[in-house]
Amino acid sequence: MTRMPSLPLLLLLAAAPLAAQDLPAPPSTADIPLLAPVTVSGVQPGPGLWKVSKGDHVLWLLGTTSALPAHMQWRSDEVERIVAGSQEVIRSPRVKFKLDIGFFGKLFLLPSAFGARKNPDGKTLDQVLPAPLYARWVALKARYIGRDHGIERWRPLFAGIELYRKALKKNGLRSGGQIEDTVVGLAKQHGVRIVDATYTQEIKDPRGALKAFKTAGPEDTECFSRTLDSVENDIPAMAERANAWATGDIATLRRLPDSRFRNACADALAESGFARQLHISDLPARVDAVWFAAARQALAQDRQALAVLSMDQLVAPGNYLDTLKAEGYTVQSPAGDDPAPATSGAAGAPAQ
After folding, report:
1. pLDDT, tens digit, for every residue of 12-32?
2. Is 163 left (phi over 0), alpha (psi -120 to 50) or beta?
3. Strand-pair category, 42-44 with 72-74
4. Cα(131)–Cα(261) distance, rounded to whole angstroms?
């Protein structure tokens, strides 16, 4: 199921999705030459769509990935045809934090929020990280960030996110979030209803929440270590995955999961003292429930709809499709996918 970061500060600072594989910590990378992986460019088709149906009601599912080739242009003609013939488009599941505070309160709260990005008591990364882990950070920071003394005072969680962003850019990759933005733009262009599958969590005491984050924040050293693993080892796999998305190679997307590292970080956040104090440790399950409710409603009332999910929510073990199958919906994989035979129907987009 989906793994959503459970801290308001992550959302405030627009933390990007992270991806990595479970690998042991490597030695220093200072002397390894920087060789950017080759990524595809030009106009590319992207992956096919999954088809979920019940009777003559259909929900098409488009999978996205956290990174895409920087110079790729998505050929979205097929998706546009489906959007144009749909009654609604469901956005990917997400969480929104509602602060119980007025306008002027927000102005006073904002500096504290950014202060929470830093380590407590003015400590620097070399003071809060084990020496071998900090040595790996120094080598990667020199390669991808350069001389930025301010970041040395950031919590490892946020420093890792910034490193990951810079590493993507220098290796010919960009965020995959633009795919969903394109789909939403197509829905607006064709006058199709947009459904936000968003779980809203109200924070009754924002100042107390920030205080809790500073004093009982996540044990994010493990998350930081996994970030370094990702940047040191997984850039070629990320590029391969990005190329696979661009060219519609779903078999490769199944072989290269995107969420292992992100899930490890999300677990660290959900298990933090901060999350327990705010009673949001089960936030991922709440977010899942909102998306499934939106999907069931679309399949009940719409002749056709389209939803956007992460690729892992479609192909990883325990994915959304497994849940829908268990509930009695017919699920058909796109052409080129090979895990199990389709239950019924023919592949491809419906005739318009």
Report:
1. 333 333 333 333 333 344 444
2. alpha
3. parallel
4. 22
Structure tokens at 47: 């992956």
Is residue 66 within 8 A of residue 16, CB to CB? The reply is yes
Which residue in this structure is represented by tokens 């998350």? 223
Closest-CA residue to 309 (of 87, 47, 71): 47
Helix (H, G, I), strand (E, B) or coil at 227: helix
Residue 26 structure tokens = 């490597």
| Per-residue pLDDT tens over the stretch 207-266 | 666 666 666 545 678 778 888 988 888 888 889 999 999 999 999 998 887 755 566 566
Query: Rounded CA gap, 351 and 154, in Å?
Result: 53
Amino acid at 237: A
Q: What is the dihedral of CA 162, 164, 165, 166, to 10 degrees?
A: 90
Q: What is the mean pLDDT of residues 337-343?
A: 47
3-state secondary structure of 148: coil
pLDDT in tens, 272-307: 655 666 666 567 788 899 999 999 999 999 999 999
- For the entire predicted model, the pTM comes to 0.75
Residue whose pair of structure tokens reads 């080129």 in the numeric block: 336
Task: Render 255-309 in DSSP notation, one character per residue.
Answer: HS-S-HHHHHHHHHHHTSHHHHHTT-TTHHHHHHHHHHHHHHHHHHH-SEEEEEE
Choose among 69, 22, 1: nearest CA to 241: 69
**Structure-model confidence comparison of residues 104 and 113, the more confident one:** 113
Residue type (1 letter), 123: K
